[in-house]
């Protein structure tokens, strides 16, 4: 049975979607933007600061679904500028240190709110 995930610490969805869903032992997150719930709005700074906020929001959603960053199986990462790839990787590797998940990372024309990065994931619930 499908259940909807609501993460208290993640920013409110900006459209008709949930933070994520669970089906069986799997967690599917929506794309997480660099929006800070506490401060309101997109975080200030460049790709590094925005990447940190995206990954923090992703962590909040996965944890609300019963998983953790260690249970992530796959991420999909969207960059508004592929020249940010190296800087994004520097932040990403601080969140995924060992047994890294499978990943796709590519540039897209535009992202919501004019942000530089968006990240989504598939994870599993802790056993």
UniProtKB/TrEMBL annotation:
GO CC, any one term: cytosol
The name this protein goes by in its record: RidA family protein
Family as reported in the entry's similarity comment: Belongs to the RutC family.
GO molecular-function term, one example from the UniProt record: deaminase activity
SUPFAM superfamilies named in the record: YjgF-like
Superkingdom in the source lineage: Bacteria
Record lineage: Bacteria, Pseudomonadati, Pseudomonadota, Gammaproteobacteria, Alteromonadales
InterPro entries: RidA, RutC-like_sf, YjgF/YER057c/UK114
Gene3D superfamilies: RutC-like (3.30.1330.40)
Pfam families for this protein: Ribonuc_L-PSP
